[in-house]
Specification:
By secondary structure, the chain is of the alpha+beta class. It folds into 3 domains: 322 residues, alpha-galactosidase from lactobacil brevis (Beta-galactosidase, Chain A, domain 5); 220 residues, Aldolase class I (TIM Barrel, Alpha-Beta Barrel), CATH 3.20.20; 100 residues, Golgi alpha-mannosidase II (Immunoglobulin-like, Sandwich), CATH 2.60.40.1180. It is 21% helix and 31% strand. The chain has 14 helices and 40 strands. Strands 8, 9, 10, 11, 13, 14, 16, 17, 21 and 22 form a 10-stranded antiparallel beta sheet that branches. Strands 30-29-28-25-24-23-32-31 form an 8-stranded parallel beta sheet. Strands 7, 12, 15, 18, 19 and 20 form a 6-stranded antiparallel beta sheet that branches. Helix 8 packs parallel to helix 10, helix 11 runs parallel beside helix 12 and helix 12 packs parallel to helix 13. Bound molecules: alpha-D-galactopyranose (GLA). Alpha-D-galactopyranose binds next to loops.
Length: 744
């Protein structure tokens, strides 16, 4: 719609609109008194949470960043001492840098005006503070080019209790023709430290979220994605930035940042000539020039960040508290333990086999059965990944009585029923492909190129959005008792071209952005229609794990790699930014490891199963059943507790982490051996109440196995447990140990 209307705006509309534009409504307020006691001039802007403060100010009309750091007595992160803020505006860097005037480094924003002038100068106009709740205050700062009707509003939403700031920009102009935006960062933050240590979360299919930490050298380092739909496959849009020295879990200054965007992103770190670091976070401008019509608003996605003066652990806890309240759908509500048939059957099933799996699900005590890929398509049956995608009708051969029969059979067993869809994609061997070739992203004059034998549908096209929404809506209308969906997306963009954008006269470079906007429109419709339907976010594993998508999803599938040893590392990586309640962790047949190890690894997240239980020995089956009961008795600590990473699998033989309930009355300690060494060591805890007395118990032990920990059965104060720790003894055939500590 917006693109069509671009062409037809008239000058008179610009003039009317120019009187109304929101920037005029923002006031340049008088002397500011901040609750923390910081008093500043009218142009000193303090954005703060309980422990963090971002101070901006104007110099010669330009918005500068003066300070980012602890809001009380913390060290100055940027070069301006807080005490000096009201007085002398000294050395500082732009809060949102522009191209073409005096900026010698990367610009947060760049455009060329209708008269060909390539420069942008943004001058402070005013600001407004909106108290959205006891927790949330949004500060809007308006900027304008003195020579052109070109406006930017910077939005800073501060979450006081969670110590998180969400920052984004809205861009608008009233020039006489569309302007091309070349750069459009969500945030541009500056740092002044001796050294900068960047931790990135890199990977690939089945190897997501591998941590790498490097010291930034002079020049530019970019973390980005150009993959379009499955954007996070090689790199998650999240990072940790330590200042001065590499931070640990408990020490050092660190900023944790993540971009809430499910498409191409760019996180750019530029260490300049003076050793200052300029960070730009936003949608990837690479190949994404965007034509902005007069009087249309371009809204960037939000960049979320939290600052910790006491290491990475606190940064994760901040973000995850925020996520449980605001970033993941219904994260205050319980989740279901599920049995998925993917690794149990792959495409090889029929309704009898499925009903038999329902029996197993009931017998074992899981809440929900999730039917994966392979249930649909008739002309080109979905018996492998090379056919049927797009044809969302039950396959008559496998499911002669349809999904209604399956939901009824599951209900008889008191098991809920969920189903897999991949509605954004199409196989060339499908009826959808035959019917709607114009819905497919492909180049008009080059051969099609396939990845996993499939192509991507053009979500910039509203007709495709209707179709994609209709896949879920249609299933729900026909089978309202479906209790869960898994939404998959197994292909990135290659050879992408939208005939819809061509038709409406928009440049192809807008496709990466318009695709994601179309996707979010569908997600929003899904949630308008089915506000609390649990949906797992999956993208061939973790190809789309970000806070753009997660507010619409209850959980995500971190990786198709379910080998428990690999999962320790993968889940460890996600744990820096994403809460355990959303992190699906399934026990499967993958990896030659003890069942206990597999169960213990799954228990650190949202536990589920993907296996044939009939292949288990009776004692293993008993162990699984007991394990599910155990998990259900402690799941609230995993889901709602504060995470403390204690020993990193990247640094030794052992990974240890714990969850501490908010009232500090219950604590879970997970330990995993990640090499074949035998390890005997003490693991000191963190985050306990030093004066509370905790009884230590080892849980999820196979029958007749005694805990080897001398602390088991005894009571210690929190102070003792944090000082001395719990002694564990692990070896190749007993690779994990889980402890529950309860206040006496
Ligand atoms: C992707 C998902 C898997 C499974 C398959 C089905 O790879 O990540 O969990 O659903 O698709 O084809």
């Amino acid at each position: 719609m917006m693109n069509l209307s671009k062409k037809y705006r008239t000058l008179s509309r610009f003039l009317v609109a120019s009187c109304l534009f929101s920037i005029g409504a923002l006031s340049a307020s008088a002397r500011v008194t901040h609750p923390t006691g910081v008093t500043g001039r009218a142009d000193t802007i303090v954005i703060s949470t309980s422990h963090t403060m971002l101070v901006l100010g104007t110099e010669h009309g330009h918005l500068r960043q003066w300070y980012l750091g602890s809001n009380r007595s913390g060290k100055i992160v940027y070069s301006k001492a807080l005490d000096d803020v009201p007085g002398i505006p000294g050395q500082s860097l732009p809060a949102y840098s522009t191209f073409g005037t005096d900026n010698l480094f990367t610009a947060a924003i760049r455009t060329t005006h209708t008269d060909g002038n390539p420069s942008l100068d943004l001058v402070y106009q005013g600001r407004q503070e909106i108290k959205k709740s006891d927790d949330i205050t949004e500060t809007l700062i308006s900027l304008k080019d003195p020579q052109y009707p070109f406006f930017v509003i910077l939005h800073y939403e501060a979450y006081r209790n969670e110590d998180v700031i969400r920052q984004w920009a809205t861009i608008r102009h009233l020039e006489t023709a569309p302007l091309t935006l070349y750069n459009f960062a969500s945030a541009n933050l500056n740092f002044h430290a001796k050294n900068y240590w960047l931790t990135q979360f890199h990977g690939d299919w089945a190897a997501e979220m591998q941590m790498q930490e490097t010291r930034l050298s002079a020049g530019i380092k970019i973390l980005d994605s150009k993959l379009g739909s499955r954007a996070d496959m090689f790199q998650n849009p999240s990072f940790l930035l330590s200042l001065d020295t590499a931070s640990t879990e408990t020490t050092g200054e660190v900023l944790a940042g993540t971009l809430a965007w499910s498409g191409n992103f760019q996180l750019l770190f530029e260490v300049d000539n003076a050793g200052e670091l300029r960070l730009h976070a936003g949608m990837n401008p690479y190949g994404s020039e965007y034509s902005l019509a007069p009087d249309s608003t371009f809204t960037t996605p939000a960049f979320l960040f939290t600052y910790s003066a006491s290491g990475k652990g606190q940064a994760s806890r901040n973000l995850e508290r925020w996520a449980r309240k605001y970033g993941v759908l219904d994260a205050d509500k319980p989740r279901m333990v599920l049995l998925n048939n993917w690794e149990a059957t792959y495409f090889d099933f029929d309704e009898n086999k499925l009903v038999h799996l329902f029996d197993e699900a009931k017998e074992i005590g899981v809440d929900l059965f999730l039917l994966d890929d392979g249930w649909f398509a008739n002309k080109y049956p979905r018996n492998s990944d090379n056919a049927g995608l797009g044809d969302w009708q039950e396959n008559g051969k496998k499911l002669p009585q349809g999904i209604g029969y399956l939901t009824a059979e599951a209900a008889k067993r008191n098991v809920k029923f969920g189903i897999w869809v991949e509605p954004e994609m199409v196989n060339p061997k499908s009826e959808l492909y035959e019917r709607h070739p114009e819905w497919i992203l492909r180049l008009p004059n080059r051969p099609e190129s396939y990845y996993r034998n499939q192509l991507v549908l053009d979500l910039s096209n509203p007709a495709v959005q209707d179709f994609v929404f209709g896949v879920i809506d249609g299933l729900m209308k026909r089978y309202p008792s479906i209790a869960y969906f898994k939404w998959d997306c197994n292909r990135m963009f290659t050879d992408a071209y939208s005939s819809h954008l061509q038709l409406i006269g928009s440049p192809q470079s807008e496709l990466p952005i318009e695709y994601v906007r179309g996707l979010y429109k569908v997600f929003a419709r899904l949630r308008a229609g089915y506000p609390h339907l649990p949906v797992m976010l999956c993208s061939g594993g973790g190809g789309r794990v970000d806070y753009g998508a997660l507010p619409y999803f209850t959980e995500f599938w971190p990786s198709d790699n379910t080998n428990p040893l690999n999962r320790v590392f993968i889940q460890w990586g996600y744990s820096y930014f994403f809460p355990a309640i959303a992190t699906c962790a399934h026990v499967t047949g993958s990896g030659d490891y003890p069942l206990k190890f597999k169960m213990d690894v799954a228990m650190m997240g949202k536990m589920g199963f993907d296996m044939q239980f009939n292949k288990l020995k009776p004692e293993e089956l008993r162990f699984v059943k007991d394990g599910i009961r155990t998990y259900k008795s402690i799941e609230d600590i995993v889901w709602q507790g504060d995470l403390y990473r204690l020993l990193s699998p990247y640094e030794g033989n052992l990974a240890s982490l714990s969850y501490v309930s908010e009232d500090k009355k219950r604590v879970l300690l997970f330990n995993y051996l990640v090499t074949d060494a035998s390890v005997q060591t003490a693991v000191p805890l963190q985050g306990l109440d030093p004066v509370k007395r905790y009884r230590v118990e080892e849980i999820n032990l196979p029958a007749a196995t005694k805990s080897s920990s001398p602390e088991t059965g005894h009571v210690f104060t929190g102070a003792e447990l944090m000082r001395t720790g719990i002694h564990i003894s692990l070896k190749k055939d007993l690779r994990s140990a889980v402890f529950l500590l309860r206040e006496e």
